[in-house]
């Protein structure tokens, strides 16, 4: 077997338990959100699929624990190139849904390369930044790194997938911040970014502009794009303190809440499990993210530290934007909630990310013997 | 600063940011779920709960013998459940094609609608459409078939002015009646008894609380309240007399080429109205689902105002029927004795006014003058009484004010008086006007029901009963909610002896007077009557006939007017006779045929 008993003892149990708890919760909520619209003979189709992929991913993760995460150092540029090819492939052979090209069909599975490209970006960027701790002081120091991220960023934006491209930004800023970037330089970039906003606005698609306007005021278009936000807020709010009970959420069960097993799954938690359930889930996320930061702190090298920061930034950004969106304090961007939203590409990416965190933690422990 | 210190400082900041993010999100949840939870819970209920009203059937109207006059039949309406999501254009187009209602009109109904009850798109659709919608449910998401009671006036134009009609509540009515629980889209009585007794007839709507999904598909019934049907009205109307009166008028109008008429049949000893007719009429069924513009134009362009109930709204000069008042006054005030003979030379000696065709009857007494409706005799009575006494007696008979019948839009009529002339024309009174007033011309105006009341007071020995149309109101369980009783509202301050004399004079009218040629020698019931021919400055004279019988114990009083019918004896009397025939069952040998005719609703 692949399982190394010594490794088991060096597992970050808190992180592991929190993630497993979220995944279990996700399977229950996906069942609640999908059973109404699924023919009874396929009642558990979504749950089974998500569950099977979770198990496969866990098996792979256990196997991967035998390797040292530092092995990834050598592959940075190779997977970076692979990522670019994959993103280009989406543009030419990808399947479009809702006018957006995001999927590639591989056998029975349609994969969403932009999900994998997030973790690839973290690894590649870590590889680039690992020797630059404390050396990001001038604009010319930063420019090659920005260009390195910018290329895939633009490809993803072109799909168009504003959500994933924003995740790239979150990873980029999280990592250069941890890398010790000169704060004045960072402030300068933000200043320039704000100044660029009107120009960027120009490049947004009409539906993206609409989403942002709707975010400012959902009642601009209550039956169109504002509808999602309004119904999601109603779902969450009407859950009140203890929720309507599992399988009892009227907003979700009667289909007033769209995308209730994917992007808006948090609203189902809010509606059916109430404030208590929503807060419990958010605290599980806090534990995961907090462990991510602790693992970064305790990492034996800058490669591990930066990678842990990248992963934590990615997950934190997902949680903030997704939950914020369902609660009406973030625009609708189509970013899934890690481990909760139905979707096997995202699940695989996220479990792989957690595997890396556990790996970094385990190797760090080894040093203490 | 070492690399390690730089790291841990920055990582600490990242940690704080993460804690901050989660705290903000939890706080946001608290705000939505705890602070604002009730509000969102009500919005969630609004999303999923629809009230599908069950409209209460309106109360039925029966005649005095329990024959159904106005009822309901089940009808189907096609409605849209108001949805959270907009109804797709495809569905609206499909529905528009099926119902033959323009899409723009459907959009307007949706836009105008507030609340969560269904939006009615088309009323009273046939079973073939409801079957299509029921069978192709998936093609018509959010479309529901409502079963509604539809008002049905069994005899169409018959009795239309008494029963009235119902229609959808107007914005103006809604404004006034909101507090009484009326809602947009409600059916409300607009005219006649339907209007006066709307509160009794309408009942109380029930409804079902239905949980629907986002497409408006009902998922489960959460609760229901059965509608309470409206109370039934048992009328004083006698269906057979009503039908006979309508038929007699229709036949007569065709025969003499007139277009408008009215008749009232009452029991003089109680005030019960047995029949009330106005011509031209209308079919109240046309209004039930909203009248079509074609039908409305046809009614509206009729120069004889079909929507007016001429029996209570029409004001006409009473003509010679007013001689009842003048004669009663003259005898009662001892201005003349029944034996005194007055010489009719064809015109009065003070003012050259005479009989209609200039005939001269020579020396005549009261009874002869009444029977032959002699103008010269009654000019002299007016001369002896003066206008003030005429006015006093007119008012004693109840003229110049409404009778108080339970129908809307009753007119007061007009009593000729010095005061009226002073007020309107700012002129003194002339003797010639007293002459006119004495024979019911000039300023005097009465409604047909007032004419019936005058005759009825003579018939009931001076007693005046308030006319009424509803005998009792009965609720759905058969309990009598309200029983109406005869109401004495006046008594002539005239000796019985005098009334006897007037009665005898009126009997002469059908025995040897102006109506004798219609009734003939052998009419089996003793009838008192009075004809009238009212001058009409706008066209032919109006013909009047008032009568009561049986003479010794009157149970029927009838008043008939034929607008521009010419002589009352030729236009109104034949109608009056046919009504009396029906009231006294004198056409019994032919009853079988007549019944068949009456029971067939007219179209």
Structural overview:
- The complex is a heterodimer of chains A (369) and B (603).
- By secondary structure, chain A is mostly helical.
- Chain A has one domain.
- Helix content of chain A is 69%, strand content 4%.
- In chain B, 39% of the residues lie in helices and 21% in strands.
- Chain B has 603 residues and is an alpha+beta fold.
- In chain B, the strands form 6 sheets. In chain B, strands 2, 3, 4, 5, 10, 16 and 17 form a 7-stranded mixed beta sheet that branches.
- In chain B, strand 19 and strand 20 form a beta hairpin.
- In chain B, helix 10 packs antiparallel against helix 21, helix 13 packs across helix 15 and helix 13 runs antiparallel to helix 19.
- Chain B starts with a helix and ends with a helix.
Proportion of residues in β-strands of chain B: 15-25%
Number of helices of chain B: 22
The CATH superfamily of the largest domain in chain B appears as DD-peptidase/beta-lactamase superfamily
For the sheet with most strands of chain A, the description reads: 3 strands, antiparallel
What would the principal axes of the Cα set say about the shape of chain A? globular
Q: What is the spatial order of strands in the main beta sheet of chain A?
A: 1-2-3
Total separate domains of chain A: 1
- Estimated structural class of chain B: alpha+beta
Q: What is the fold's blueprint, element by element?
A:
The complex is a heterodimer of chains A (369) and B (603).
Chain A: H1 5-9, H2 13-34, H3 45-64, H4 76-93, E1 95-97, E2 100-106, E3 109-111, H5 113-129, H6 139-158, H7 162-178, H8 183-203, H9 206-216, H10 225-239, H11 250-253, H12 265-298, H13 302-326, H14 344-368
Antiparallel strand pairs in A: 1-2, 2-3
Helix pairs in contact in A: 2-3, 2-12, 3-14, 4-5, 4-6, 5-6, 5-7, 5-13, 5-14, 6-7, 7-13, 10-12, 12-13, 12-14, 13-14
Chain B: H1 3-35, H2 37-48, E1 49-54, E2 61-62, E3 68-80, H3 89-99, H4 103-112, E4 119-125, H5 127-135, E5 143-153, H6 160-163, E6 165-168, H7 171-177, E7 187-191, H8 192-196, H9 198-202, E8 206-212, E9 218-225, E10 232-235, H10 239-256, E11 260-266, E12 273-279, H11 293-300, H12 310-313, H13 323-332, E13 342-344, E14 362-364, H14 366-372, H15 375-396, H16 418-425, H17 431-438, H18 448-459, E15 463-465, E16 470-474, E17 480-483, E18 488-491, H19 496-511, H20 516-519, E19 528-534, E20 542-549, E21 556-563, H21 568-583, H22 591-599
Parallel strand pairs in B: 2-10
Antiparallel strand pairs in B: 1-8, 2-3, 3-4, 3-5, 6-7, 8-9, 10-16, 11-12, 11-21, 13-14, 15-18, 16-17, 19-20, 20-21
Helix pairs in contact in B: 10-21, 13-15, 13-19, 14-19, 15-17
């Amino acid at each position: 077997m692949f399982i190394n008993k010594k490794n088991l003892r060096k597992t970050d149990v808190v992180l592991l338990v929190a993630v497993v708890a979220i995944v279990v919760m996700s399977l229950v909520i996906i069942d609640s959100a999908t059973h109404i619209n699924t023919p009874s003979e396929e009642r558990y189709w979504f749950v089974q699929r998500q569950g099977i992929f979770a198990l496969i991913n866990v098996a792979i993760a256990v196997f991967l624990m035998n390797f040292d995460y530092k092995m990834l150092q050598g592959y940075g540029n190779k997977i970076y190139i692979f990522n670019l090819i994959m993103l280009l492939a989406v543009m030419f052979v990808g399947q479009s849904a809702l006018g957006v090209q995001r999927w590639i069909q591989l056998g029975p599975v349609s994969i969403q390369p932009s999900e994998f490209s997030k973790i690839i970006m973290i690894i590649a960027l870590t590889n680039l930044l690992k020797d630059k701790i404390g050396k990001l002081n001038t604009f010319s120091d930063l420019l090659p790194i920005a260009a390195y991220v910018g290329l895939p960023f633009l490809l993803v934006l072109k799909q168009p997938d504003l959500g994933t491209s924003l995740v790239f930004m979150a990873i980029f800023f999280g990592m250069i911040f941890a890398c010790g970037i000169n704060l004045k330089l960072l402030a300068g970039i933000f200043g320039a970014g704000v100044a660029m906003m009107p120009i960027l606005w120009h490049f947004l698609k009409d539906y993206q502009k609409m989403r942002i306007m709707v975010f400012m005021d959902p009642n601009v278009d209550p039956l169109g794009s504002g509808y999602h936000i309004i119904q999601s807020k109603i779902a969450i709010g009407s859950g009140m303190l203890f929720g309507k009970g599992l399988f009892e959420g009227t907003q979700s069960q009667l289909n007033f809440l769209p995308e209730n097993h994917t992007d808006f799954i948090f609203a189902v938690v809010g509606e059916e499990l109430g404030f208590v359930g929503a807060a419990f889930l958010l605290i599980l996320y806090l534990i995961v993210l907090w462990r991510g930061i602790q693992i970064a702190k305790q990492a034996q090298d800058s490669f591990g530290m930066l990678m842990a920061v990248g992963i934590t930034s990615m997950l934190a950004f997902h949680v903030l934007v997704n939950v914020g969106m369902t609660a009406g304090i973030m625009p609708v961007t189509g970013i899934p909630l890690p481990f909760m939203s139905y979707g096997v590409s995202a699940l695989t990416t996220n479990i792989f990310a957690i595997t890396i965190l556990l790996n970094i933690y385990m190797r760090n422990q080894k040093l203490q013997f | 600063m070492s690399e390690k210190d730089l790291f841990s400082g920055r990582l600490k900041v990242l940690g704080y940011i993460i804690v901050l993010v989660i705290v903000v999100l939890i706080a946001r949840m608290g705000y939505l779920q705890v602070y604002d939870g009730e509000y969102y819970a009500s919005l969630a209920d609004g999303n999923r709960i629809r009230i599908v009203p069950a409209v209460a059937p309106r109360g039925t109207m029966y005649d005095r013998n329990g024959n159904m006059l106005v009822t309901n039949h089940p009808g189907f309406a096609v409605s849209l459940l108001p949805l959270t999501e907009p109804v797709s254009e495809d569905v609206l187009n499909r529905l528009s094609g099926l119902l033959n209602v323009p899409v723009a009109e459907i959009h307007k109904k949706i836009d105008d609608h507030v609340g969560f009850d269904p939006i009615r798109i088309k009323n009273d659709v046939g079973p073939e459409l409801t079957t299509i919608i029921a069978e192709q449910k998936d093609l018509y998401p959010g479309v529901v078939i409502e079963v509604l009671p539809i008002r049905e006036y069994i005899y169409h134009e018959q009795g239309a002015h008494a029963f009235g009609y119902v229609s959808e509540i107007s914005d103006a009515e809604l404004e006034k009646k909101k507090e009484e629980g009326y809602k947009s889209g409600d059916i409300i009585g607009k005219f006649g008894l339907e209007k006066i007794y709307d509160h009794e007839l309408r009942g109380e709507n029930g409804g079902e609380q239905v949980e629907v999904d986002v497409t408006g598909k009902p998922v489960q019934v959460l609760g229901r309240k059965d509608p309470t049907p409206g109370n039934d009205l048992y009328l004083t109307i006698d269906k057979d007399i009503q039908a006979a009166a309508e038929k007699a008028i229709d036949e007569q109008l065709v025969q003499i080429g007139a277009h408008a008429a009215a008749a009232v049949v009452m029991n003089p000893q109680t005030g019960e109205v047995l029949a009330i007719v106005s011509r031209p009429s209308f079919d109240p069924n046309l209004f039930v689902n909203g009248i079509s513009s074609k039908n409305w134009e046809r009614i509206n362009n009729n120069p004889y105002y079909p929507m007016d109930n001429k029996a209570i709204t029409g004001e006409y000069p009473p003509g010679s029927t007013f001689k009842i008042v003048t004669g009663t006054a003259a005898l009662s005030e001892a201005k003349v004795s029944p034996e005194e003979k007055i010489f009719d030379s064809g015109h009065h000696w003070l003012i050259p006014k005479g009989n209609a065709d200039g005939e001269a009857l020579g020396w005549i007494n009261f009874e002869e003058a009444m029977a032959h409706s002699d103008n010269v005799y009654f000019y002299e009575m007016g001369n002896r009484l003066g206008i003030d006494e005429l006015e006093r007696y007119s008012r004693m008979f109840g003229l110049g004010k409404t009778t108080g019948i339970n129908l809307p839009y009753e007119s007061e009529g007009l009593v000729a008086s010095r005061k009226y002339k002073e007020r309107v024309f700012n002129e003194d009174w002339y003797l010639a006007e007293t002459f006119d007033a004495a024979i019911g011309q000039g300023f005097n105006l009465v409604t047909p029901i007032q004419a019936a009341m005058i005759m009825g007071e003579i018939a009931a020995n001076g007693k005046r009963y308030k006319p009424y149309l509803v005998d009792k109101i009965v609720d759905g369980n058969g309990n009598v909610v309200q029983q109406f009783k005869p109401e004495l509202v006046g008594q002539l301050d005239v000796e019985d002896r005098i009334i006897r004399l007037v009665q005898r004079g009126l009997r002469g009218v059908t025995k040897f007077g102006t109506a004798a040629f219609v009734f003939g020698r052998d009419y089996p019931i003793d009838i008192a009557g009075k004809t009238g021919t009212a001058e009409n400055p706008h066209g032919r004279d109006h013909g009047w006939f008032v009568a009561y019988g049986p003479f010794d114990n009157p149970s029927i009083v009838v008043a008939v007017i034929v607008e521009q019918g010419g002589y009352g004896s030729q236009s109104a009397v034949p109608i009056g006779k046919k009504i009396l025939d029906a009231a006294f069952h004198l056409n019994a040998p032919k009853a079988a045929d007549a019944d068949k005719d009456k029971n067939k609703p007219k179209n």
